[in-house]
């Protein structure tokens, strides 16, 4: 039997950040998955987490955990698939380090992901975005900070992880005219900023506390702002914006919705999906196609280009033959009349 703790520790502390060079956000996400998995297995097997062994995590245990994530914790299918991706990554790491666990690792890695619905994205229109950007009170320190955060997130189409990890050195010439982003998958991009965004950033930097933390955005205690902290402040400003723009009430505004809004407005302005992919830092244009499905303007252009076909109106005639009548009722899902 093989103890889990040393191998899981090496995976999170050495393999992911050093050998794979993944981002700190990815390490935190994977670590959170294994916190949930280890607690689940320890409760199920009535053992301490430090006493768990790799052999305890067979396909039955993993499947039970995934069901717990989806049903017991009420998470969506995408979250369930994300947990499975982290588990697969760990067992891929185990394969070549523990040959005795090879068969188990292959079985776990063969667990299929669940298909998810390709739902349309949520985004804010220009009036709603304007109301949201104006929601923070610039007369207060936190309001000045929040206005800069919202402006920068929307203007750059930033992920929350990209926003909270920004540092002063990410503005190369200190003029705030451009920002250097280290994105998902360690893909870098440099984005120009609007004058309004530069003004909001300068207002915050002028009153930002002088602390050792190099991150631009700090919480009330002078520590780097977290993802949850940004989400909390966004929710407060959404309430304020909704009072002026009631249509916001009908939408679920998450931090990622600001990124979606930037993408939709960029697509409307340029009409070029490649430019949207470039702005957002997508690895593949396939990731950007979801904005085409959500854009009604693209569908209207298709209608205008083709026009409706000329079809003469017809009149339905019921079949007179008894057998054909029965067959048509069966085809349409009706119970044939006796």
Automatic annotation (TrEMBL):
Gene3D superfamilies: 1.10.150.130, Intergrase catalytic core
Domain Core-binding (CB): 2-95
Domain Tyr recombinase residue range list: 119-304
BP-aspect Gene Ontology terms: chromosome segregation; DNA integration; DNA recombination
Stored Pfam families: Phage_int_SAM_1, Phage_integrase
Domain of life assignment: Bacteria
Any GO MF annotation of the entry: DNA binding
Signal peptide: none
Keywords tagged on the record: Chromosome partition, DNA integration, DNA recombination, DNA-binding
Protein name: Tyrosine-type recombinase/integrase
Taxonomy of the source species: Bacteria, Pseudomonadati, Pseudomonadota, Alphaproteobacteria, Sphingomonadales
């Amino acid at each position: 039997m093989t103890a889990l703790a040393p191998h899981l520790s090496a995976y999170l502390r050495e393999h992911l950040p050093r050998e794979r060079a993944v981002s700190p956000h990815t390490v935190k996400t994977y670590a959170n998955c294994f916190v949930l998995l280890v607690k689940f297995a320890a409760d199920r097997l009535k053992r301490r987490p430090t006493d768990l062994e790799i052999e305890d995590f067979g396909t039955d245990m993993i499947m039970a955990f995934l069901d717990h994530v989806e049903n017991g914790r009420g998470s969506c299918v995408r979250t369930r698939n994300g947990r499975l991706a982290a588990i697969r990554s760990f067992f891929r790491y185990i394969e070549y380090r523990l040959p005795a666990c090879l068969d188990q690792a292959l079985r776990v890695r063969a667990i299929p992901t669940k298909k998810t619905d390709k739902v349309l994205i949520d985004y804010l229109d220009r009036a709603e975005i304007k109301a949201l950007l104006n929601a923070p009170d610039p007369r207060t320190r936190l309001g000045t900070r929040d206005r800069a955060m919202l402006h920068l997130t929307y203007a750059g189409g930033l992920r929350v992880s990209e926003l909270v990890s920004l540092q002063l050195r990410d503005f190369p010439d200190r003029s705030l005219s451009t920002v250097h982003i280290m994105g998902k998958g360690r893909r870098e991009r440099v984005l120009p900023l609007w004058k309004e965004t530069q003004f909001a950033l300068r207002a915050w930097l002028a009153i930002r506390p002088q602390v050792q933390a190099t991150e631009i955005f700090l919480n009330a205690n002078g520590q780097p702002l977290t993802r949850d902290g940004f989400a909390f402040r966004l929710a407060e400003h959404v309430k304020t914006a909704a009072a002026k723009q009631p249509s916001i009430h009908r939408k679920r505004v998450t931090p990622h919705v600001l990124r979606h809004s930037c993408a939709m407005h960029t697509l409307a302005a340029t009409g070029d999906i490649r430019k949207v992919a470039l702005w957002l830092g997508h690895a593949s244009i396939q990731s950007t196609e979801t904005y085409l499905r959500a854009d009604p303007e693209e569908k209207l252009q298709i209608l205008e280009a083709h026009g409706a076909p000329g079809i003469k109106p017809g009149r339905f005639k019921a079949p007179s033959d008894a057998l054909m009548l029965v067959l048509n009722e069966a085809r349409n899902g009706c119970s044939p009349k006796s």
